[in-house]
Design brief:
With 157 residues, this protein is of the alpha/beta class. Helices cover 53% and strands 11% of the residues. Helix 1 crosses helix 4 and helix 3 runs antiparallel to helix 5.
């Protein structure tokens, strides 16, 4: 299965230290130019990780032929949706409006939490859900604990 990533999941997974293993879940990991430009506006670990994975040919950079128009979405989100449709790929998005737009386009959607669940269930990361939630909070990922535990299949206390 191919996946087109938007910037938010790439940045979050890189900050958590799981970008390499997350990319390996897919036959192809793809990003549009708009996503690359969003990520590389800052010189940080996330941009370095993405650039390294492009150089290693583990993430492919693609141009988009046209983008849909959805008010309130950023260029990276629009290009990720368009590229997912063009390449018949799943799209990796966290923004609720962008996820709804992708579904309207008939595209399968997964987010950062969905990828983390796959990694947890597959034993590819060692944290327990509570530790992972704390780590997400520390890096500034906004998530309601109830939703986190609902996705992870655990209990909220």
């Amino acid at each position: 299965m191919r996946a087109v990533f938007n910037s938010s999941p790439l940045i979050t997974l890189a900050k958590l230290g799981y970008l390499d293993v997350a990319v390996s879940l897919f036959e192809k990991a793809i990003i549009p130019r708009g996503v690359l430009e969003e990520i590389t506006t800052k010189e940080d670990d996330a941009s370095s990780s993405v650039l390294r994975l492009i150089e290693e040919k583990r993430i492919e950079l693609h141009e988009v032929s046209s983008t849909p128009v959805y008010p309130g979405l950023h260029r990276g989100e629009l290009e990720a949706i368009a590229l997912s449709k063009e390449t018949d790929s799943i799209v990796v998005l966290d923004d609720l409006k962008a996820r709804k737009a992708a579904r309207l386009e008939g595209i399968r959607v997964i987010g950062t939490l969905g990828i983390l669940k796959i990694l947890l269930d597959g034993g590819l990361i060692e944290e327990k859900p509570d530790e992972l939630l704390s780590k997400l909070n520390r890096i500034g990922f906004r998530i309601r604990p109830e939703l986190f535990y609902e996705v992870m299949g655990g209990e909220f206390s």
